[in-house]
Design brief:
Helix content is 21%, strand content 31%. The chain is an alpha+beta fold. The two termini are 59 Å apart.
Length: 421
């Protein structure tokens, strides 16, 4: 029965370390390691890699609109409309709809009355009982108007967002937010009613001290208030009277006449100064060539009691709010995962120093002799016959078959000599 050697069974294998006493290699290695470590720490802090992030999975956007206060004047473009301008209130300027995050704002409307082939349709115009009662547009009586002062109408936007696994939820009225221009600079910064000194300081820094761009929310206002003009500026649209690029637009038709689609991305993220708090931004763009139109039918009852249909062909701004972004909360596992992944960059410093040591520097042969240890040729050992006896300077090793294998004795105290260069 073989005898068990517990020291051999539970032996510990370790790496051999060669300490190269050369300041050039040490300075390169430690300089690179320190630079990489600083970069790793900067990335973890600036990119908030200690947060467990998840995309915004649910939310809602509510939008209301109001006309400008006071008695507005008559804009110059009203003289270009076939029938002048109309002055709508908040309910009239947008057709009734309950779409989440979408609002249509009228800039031009064509009103047309309808007739029927049969004079005896009565209320049948609403639900035509026969072909003779289908409403026919009387284009001769159509009237086209522009909506006056539409750029000065104000929108109130209230939105909420939440995650899934973290279950974080927030309402914009409690957060710091901003409306950004095409270049990324804030046009307006929205500050919560109950804001601390740090939030106010951050808002002031975002607008470079321009206090007129800081909007402190009123306790009675649920969300952010912005004008149509501010949205157009954020979308890099200088005026509604520029030429339209919509395929169906006429030769000299303007955006005010054809309409346009405006996309507003509401992007959520964690604040850099306080990762436990959320912030958001409005990033606005216009869809070139997209025409916005809305057809509306309104029943009209005359003095005689008969009902006809009035068609309102609206063109204007279709403003679409889309929620996106990432919500995060601190998790130790997220920090450790990103830290371990980043530490792999330290191999770059090791690889660089190894390359210099073995292939570049003048003493590369001496460095290679210390670093690389070449064993004896084991093919020769296998071919040797045990009966030949022990060679000078050799040791015997047991191969488990009562045979002796001749191995060379290596003197580990011998060191390669440095050649003068």
């Amino acid at each position: 029965m073989p005898k068990w050697d517990w020291d051999d069974i539970f032996a510990y294998d370790t790496f051999k370390v060669v300490r190269v006493r050369d300041r050039r290699l040490g300075l390169v290695y430690y300089s690179c390691s320190i630079a990489i470590a600083v970069y790793i720490l900067y990335s973890i802090i600036s990119q908030q890699l200690y947060l467990q992030r998840e995309p915004v999975t649910g939310g809602s956007v509510r939008i209301t609109i109001q006309p400008p206060p006071g008695v507005p004047g008559t804009p110059d473009y009203c003289s270009k409309a076939p029938n002048g301008c109309v002055y709508y209130d908040g309910m009239q300027v947008t057709p009734s709809n309950d779409l989440n995050g979408v609002i249509f704002v009228t800039t031009r409307v064509t009103v047309s009355n309808t007739t029927t082939a049969s004079p005896n349709c009565g209320y049948g115009a609403l639900n035509p009982p026969s072909v003779d009662c289908i409403p026919q547009i009387d284009r001769a009586s159509s009237r086209t108007y522009y909506a006056a002062n539409i750029e000065d109408y104000t929108l109130m936007v209230e939105h909420t967002a939440r995650g899934k696994s973290t279950s974080r939820s927030a309402r914009n009225g409690d957060l710091l937010g901003s409306l950004k221009s095409k270049t990324g600079s804030p046009i307006a910064v929205y500050v919560p009613t109950q804001s601390n000194a740090e939030t106010t300081k951050l808002a002031t820094a975002m607008v470079d001290g321009a206090a007129n761009r800081i909007v402190a929310r009123s306790p009675s206002v649920a969300g952010d208030v912005m004008t149509i003009r501010q949205l157009l500026d954020a979308a890099d649209l200088s005026s509604l009277d520029v030429k339209s690029t919509a395929p169906g637009a006429g030769a000299n038709e303007t955006v005010r006449e054809s309409g346009i689609v405006i996309l507003v991305m509401v992007t959520y993220t964690n604040r850099r100064d306080d990762s436990s708090a959320l912030t958001y931004s409005y990033d606005v763009s216009n869809v070139s060539g997209a025409e916005a139109k809305f057809l509306e039918s309104v029943p009209i009852t005359n003095a005689a009691g008969s009902t006809t249909i009035q068609i309102r062909n609206r063109h204007g701004l279709r403003i679409v709010f889309t929620q996106t972004g990432m919500l995060g909360e601190f998790q130790l596992m997220a920090l450790l995962t990103n830290l371990v992944a980043s530490l792999a960059m330290l191999r770059v410093a090791i690889f660089g120093v190894e390359f210099l040591m073995v292939w570049v520097l003048p003493q590369r042969k001496a460095y290679r002799a210390y670093k690389v240890q070449v064993t004896a040729d084991f093919s020769e050992l296998r071919e040797r016959s045990p009966e030949r006896g022990r060679q000078p300077g050799a040791a015997l090793a047991d191969n488990g078959k009562n045979d002796s294998i001749v191995l060379p004795v290596i003197n580990h105290d011998e060191q390669p000599k440095l050649e003068s260069v």
